[in-house]
From TrEMBL:
Origin: domain of life: Eukaryota
InterPro entries according to UniProt: SRCR, SRCR-like_dom_sf
Name the record gives this protein: SRCR domain-containing protein
Domain SRCR: 29-130
Keyword Ubl conjugation attributed: no
Length: 133
């Protein structure tokens, strides 16, 4: 019985830490460190790692795309939810989405993934979305 409990505990930990068991794809997004599922620091999945996004060039259209991608309505604001983990990658900066974009990886950026050396984690993007679509 103990081995069965240990097995299910490990499965739950794998799923809750986003280790790929749920099949993340490059460009998937999530919100972390908010007080509800509607808000948090934006993290994007790329190269098998979750990373943050620099707020340089970020606007409400970019926030709207993140909210829509997560199945929410438009964004209400883009507050700060604190910096990401210092060793975590900052994947994107200078994101420019169009209102027709459905996923963050459809948006134009000013550089390549991970090329954001001049942007510290205290500039990580956060969003607050309105309810489910």
């Amino acid at each position: 019985m103990d081995s069965l409990i240990l097995f299910w505990t490990q499965v739950i930990l794998l799923v809750s830490t986003g280790s790929g068991i749920l099949g993340q794809s490059p460009g998937d997004v999530r919100l972390v460190d908010g007080s509800s599922t509607l808000e948090g620091r934006v993290e994007v999945y790329y190269d098998n790692l979750w990373g943050t996004i620099c707020n340089r060039g970020w606007d409400s259209t970019d926030s709207d795309v993140v909210c829509r991608q997560l199945g929410f309505q438009v964004s209400l604001s883009s507050p700060s939810f604190g910096p990401g983990i210092p060793t975590q990658r900052i994947w994107l900066a200078d994101v420019q989405c169009e209102s027709s974009d459905r996923r963050l990886n459809e948006c134009v950026t000013d550089g390549q993934w991970g090329q954001t050396s001049t942007c510290p984690h205290n500039n990580d993007v956060g969003v607050r979305c309105s309810g489910r679509v």
